[in-house]
Design brief:
- The protein is mainly alpha-helical.
- The radius of gyration is 24 Å and the shape is globular.
- Helix 1 crosses helix 8, helix 4 crosses helix 17 and helix 7 packs across helix 18.
- It contains 23 helices and two strands.
- 69% of the residues lie in helices and 1% in strands.
- The protein has one domain: Sodium/glucose cotransporter (Up-down Bundle), CATH 1.20.1730.10.
- It has a two-stranded antiparallel sheet with strand order 1-2.
C-alpha cells in the first residue's frame, strides 16, 4: 500500500475515534463543560494532562529546537519538566482543594476583587493566545504534509476538527479525546525512535542509543554529529550554549515557573474528585510525560545526523538536486523546505555560511515528521508519525481554547457582568466563546504577530511574570492585598511585554554569532524569551510593597488561605461558596 493511502487510513481512523468520543462525551452542563463533571480517574486524568501538556511544541518543535541548538536546547527539557514538578507540588493540590472551575475565579475570590479577576482573565488570554499561535503552526505543518497541500489549507482543516470536538464536548469531550490522543502521540514518537536507534546504533532503546557507537564503527553517535556539523561551519553540537550561562539559567527558570502558571494545564486538576486524586494524577502525568521527554534528545540528534548525511553523503560530495529523495520533494511542496542552486552546480550545498548555503529554508518543525521518511522506515510508521503530530497539536490547542472560552464565559460573563445568567445560557455562551477563540487562533496562525512568531516559549514567560506569582502569593501568603495583587500582575506582564516589543522580530534565533552580537543590547544579555523570570521578580516585589502600604485582607480571606493550605481531610474535596 502506498504512503498516501496508508496515511489517510491511519489518520482517518484516529479522527474517527476523536469525533466519536466527542459525540459520546457531549457536555450537558456547565460543570461537564468546564471540569468534565469533576469525576475523572487520576490515571486517566494523568494521561489527558500529559496529552494537554505535550503540545506541538513538545512533539514537533522540541526535538527540532534541540537538533539545531544542541546542548543549548536542554533549557526546554529542564524548564518544562522542572516546571511541571512545581505545578504538581505547589499549585495543583491547593487549587483543587479550593474547588472552583478556573484560575481567574480563584484569584478573584482570594483577592476579594472583581478587578483582580478581570486582570487575571486579561493575563490568561494574553498567555493562552500567544501559546495557541504555536499550536496552530503545528496543526498547519502536520496537516499540510498529511494532505500534501499548502500550509493555509492544512490549518483550516485542523480548525474544523478542533471546532467539532472542543465546542461540542467541552472539557468532558476534550478529556476523553486527549486520552486517545496521548496513546496515539506516544506510540508515534517512540516507535520511529526505536527503529532509527536500531538503524544507527543497533540499540533499540533511543535513550541508550544516544550514547552508543554507530553500527559497524567505534565512533560514538554524538562524536560523529560533532564532526559533521563542525565540517559545515556550525558550532559543536555537544558544547554550544545559548548566549551565556546566565541566559541559560534565566531561560530555564522562566520556562519552569511559566509552566506552573499555565491555566490550561492547571484546570486539568479540577477534573478529579479529590485533592488526593489531584496529587496522584500529577504523578501519573509526570510518568507519561517522561516517556517522550527522555526520548526527545535522541530523536533530535539522530534526525540532525540523518538529514546532514542525506545532503552530504560523503565529505565534500553534496546531493544532486535532480536526485533528491521523495521526502525532500514532499516537504518542498509545503513551503517549509526550500533550496536555491546559488552556484549553478546542480548540487545542494549546506553550510553555516548564509552566502553559500543552498538549503535556504529548513523549518526546524519538520524534523520529527520528516525523520521516518529520511530513515526510509515502513509507510505505516510514517503514517503513524503524521497522526501523532496531529494528535499533539490538536490536544493542546483544544485545552488552550477551552481555557480562553472559560475565562470569557465563566469569569467575565457569569462571574462579573451577568451573575444571574442561567446555566443553559452560560453553556451556550461558552460554546460561542470557544468558536470565536478558534476563529481568532486560526487567524493568528495564518498571520502571527512578529513578537510571537518565533516560539511558544514567550507564552511561558508571560505566564511566569503574571499568573504564577499571583497564585503563589494567593496560596502561601495571608498578607498580600487585592491592590498588591493587581499592581503586581499588571507590572509583571507589563514589563515583560515592553521588553519583548522592544526586541520584536528576533524572538528566536539559532545563529549563535548573531545572538552574541545582539546580547550586548539586552538587559544583562538576557534574550526576550528568557525575560519572564525578571517579570516575575517585578510582580512579587510590587505586590509585596503595595500590600505593605494598603489595608490587610479581611479575616475571612486570611481564614480561606489557611484552610486551603491545611492538608487535613485532603482526601475530601472542599467546595467554598
Amino acid at each position: 500500500m502506498d504512503l498516501t493511502t496508508t496515511t489517510y487510513l491511519v489518520v482517518g481512523f484516529t479522527f474517527a475515534v476523536y469525533l466519536g468520543i466527542a459525540i459520546w462525551a457531549r457536555a450537558g452542563s456547565t460543570k461537564e463543560f468546564y471540569v468534565a463533571g469533576g469525576g475523572i480517574h487520576p490515571i486517566a486524568n494523568g494521561m489527558a494532562t500529559a496529552a494537554d501538556w505535550m503540545s506541538a511544541a513538545s512533539f514537533i518543535g522540541m526535538a527540532g529546537l534541540i537538533a539545531f541548538m544542541g546542548y543549548g536546547g536542554s533549557v526546554f527539557l529542564m524548564g518544562w519538566t522542572g516546571g511541571y514538578v512545581i505545578l504538581a507540588m505547589l499549585v495543583a493540590p491547593y487549587l483543587r482543594k479550593y474547588g472552583k472551575f478556573t484560575v481567574p475565579e480563584f484569584i478573584g475570590d482570594r483577592f476579594y476583587s472583581d478587578t483582580a479577576r478581570i486582570v487575571a482573565v486579561l493575563c490568561l488570554i494574553i498567555c493562552s493566545v500567544t501559546y495557541v499561535i504555536g499550536q496552530m503552526k503545528g496543526i498547519g505543518v502536520a496537516f499540510s504534509r498529511f494532505l500534501e497541500t499548502d500550509y493555509a489549507t492544512g490549518l483550516y482543516t485542523g480548525m474544523v476538527i478542533v471546532f467539532f470536538y472542543a465546542v461540542l464536548g467541552g472539557m468532558k469531550g476534550i478529556t476523553y479525546t486527549q486520552i486517545a490522543q496521548y496513546c496515539v502521540l506516544i506510540l508515534a514518537y517512540t516507535i520511529p525512535a526505536i527503529f532509527i536507534s536500531l538503524q544507527l546504533t543497533g540499540n533499540p532503546i533511543p535513550q541508550l542509543g544516544l550514547g552508543s557507537t554507530l553500527v559497524g564503527t567505534d565512533t560514538y553517535l554524538l562524536d560523529k554529529l560533532d564532526q559533521t556539523v563542525q565540517m559545515l561551519g556550525f558550532s559543536q553540537y555537544t558544547t554550544q550554549t545559548r548566549i551565556s550561562s546566565l541566559n541559560m539559567f534565566a531561560y530555564t527558570a522562566s520556562l519552569m515557573i511559566g509552566t506552573a502558571g499555565l491555566p490550561h494545564v492547571i484546570i486539568r486538576f479540577f477534573t478529579v474528585p479529590t485533592v488526593k486524586d489531584a496529587r496522584s494524577s500529577a504523578g501519573w502525568a509526570l510518568v507519561f510525560i517522561a516517556i517522550l521527554y527522555t526520548t526527545a534528545p535522541a530523536v533530535a540528534a539522530m534526525a540532525r545526523l540523518n538529514i546532514m548525511q542525506t545532503i552530504e553523503p560523503s565529505p565534500g560530495e553534496y546531493l544532486k538536486i535532480d536526485e533528491r529523495p521523495d521526502w525532500f520533494r514532499n516537504w518542498e511542496n509545503t513551503g517549509l523546505l526550500v533550496i536555491e542552486d546559488k552556484n549553478g552546480d546542480g548540487r545542494i550545498q549546506y553550510s553555516a555560511d548564509a552566502e553559500t548555503n543552498e538549503l535556504v529554508k529548513l523549518d526546524r518543525d519538520i524534523l520529527v515528521l520528516a525523520n521516518p521518511e529520511i530513515a526510509q522506515l515502513p509507510n505505516w510508521v510514517i503514517a503513524l508519525v503524521a497522526a501523532g503530530g496531529l494528535a499533539a497539536a490538536l490536544s493542546t490547542a483544544a485545552g488552550l481554547l477551552l481555557a480562553i472560552s472559560s475565562a470569557i464565559s465563566h469569569d467575565l460573563l457569569k462571574g462579573t457582568f451577568m451573575p444571574n445568567i442561567s446555566e443553559k445560557a452560560e453553556l451556550n455562551a461558552s460554546r460561542c466563546a470557544m468558536a470565536a477563540a478558534i476563529a481568532g487562533a486560526g487567524y493568528l496562525g495564518l498571520h502571527p504577530p512578529g513578537f510571537a512568531a518565533g516560539t511558544v516559549a514567550l507564552a511561558f514567560g508571560l505566564a511566569a511574570s503574571s499568573i504564577f506569582p499571583a497564585l503563589m502569593m494567593g496560596i502561601f501568603s495571608k498578607t498580600v492585598t487585592r491592590e498588591g495583587a493587581i499592581a503586581g500582575m499588571l507590572s509583571g506582564i507589563g514589563v515583560t511585554l515592553f521588553y519583548v516589543f522592544q526586541h520584536k522580530g528576533i524572538m528566536f534565533v539559532a545563529d549563535w554569532t548573531y545572538l552574541e552580537h545582539l546580547a550586548p543590547h539586552w538587559f544583562f544579555g538576557i534574550e526576550p524569551n528568557a525575560f519572564g523570570v525578571f517579570g516575575a521578580i517585578v510582580n512579587f516585589s510590587v505586590a509585596l510593597l503595595v500590600s505593605q502600604l494598603t489595608s490587610a485582607p479581611p479575616e475571612r480571606i486570611q481564614a480561606l488561605v489557611e484552610d486551603i493550605r491545611i492538608p487535613m481531610g485532603s482526601d475530601v474535596a472542599v467546595i467554598h461558596p
